[in-house]
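Hey, resending since the last one bounced:
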Amino acid sequence: MTHSFKSFCGRPATIYELDGGNIIAGISDLGASVQYVRVKTSSGWRDVCPGFDDAEEYAVSGTYFGATIGRVANRIKDARFSLGGKTYEIPKNDGENCNHGGTVGFDKKFFKVNSCGNMLELTLESQDGDMGFPGNLKLKVRYVASDGALWVSYRAVSDKDTLWAPTCHVYFNLDGAECGDCLGNMVRINADKFTPSGKGFIPTGEVRFVRGTPFDFTSFRAIGERIGEKDAGLELAGGYDQNFILNDGHAASAYGAKSGIKLDIFTDLPGLQFYSGNFLKGRSGFGQLKPRAAFALEPQYFPNAANTPAFERPLLKAGEEKSHYIKYIFS
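The structure tokens again:
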């Protein structure tokens, strides 16, 4: 099933609907983005992702709502990196830094679509020099909805050494977007350590234990429980916008205290960015989005891993095919 996502830059956009039994996911060819996930409950269907029904609103909102992020998720300090002895300058779109791939990242690009039942395959060719990144990169994104789960897998190959660090920037409010803010949602993050950030949300390179800090989500905690505490990281971001170092592939769990809907996230990526939607805006399918209307849990490489020797670098070598996955299970 498909329906119109209106148009962006004069080009019609489409949402493709995947039926996964007790979930229905809406994926757009613009940004290979998740625009809604509806979960079947005893009282009917509940939309737990307050996405957009207008492509232009989505693109200009600055939310990256549900988008496939590329070439590199999160921030690159001073919008530059070195590779093979050469320094590459990329667009500054977050102060002095580059965030989520630059001014025209994958979130604003149209993907080619191959649809088949409960599976949607989308492809994109990013040319050598696209947003300053080297190499002709071919990307394949596949969404599969089945038995209450939404799988997303990424596969890429480049003809030059380049950086590649994908994520799915989907937002959630498990009590339903119409319930207001997400602060009552309960979250558990499978991480004993995090990477503190300084100016521009760039990690300092230090690693800290979460114990004794407002970033301790090793057991279920309401998002709003400690979000207002006096802490340099919280004050810098106006809430949570923090990278965690994952212990293993079961990245996080969350549930809606009112709805009872539970979410489990699995991935092979090393980090998880937890964002409490501090600056959400734009007119979504549920009306005007307000700050903290929804939260994001983004499996990823660490922010500025391109320039931090202590972090695993998201390097894609020429001719090497590389893949990553994220799995969302709703119950």
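The first helix runs from residue 55 to 60.

Sorry for the duplicate.
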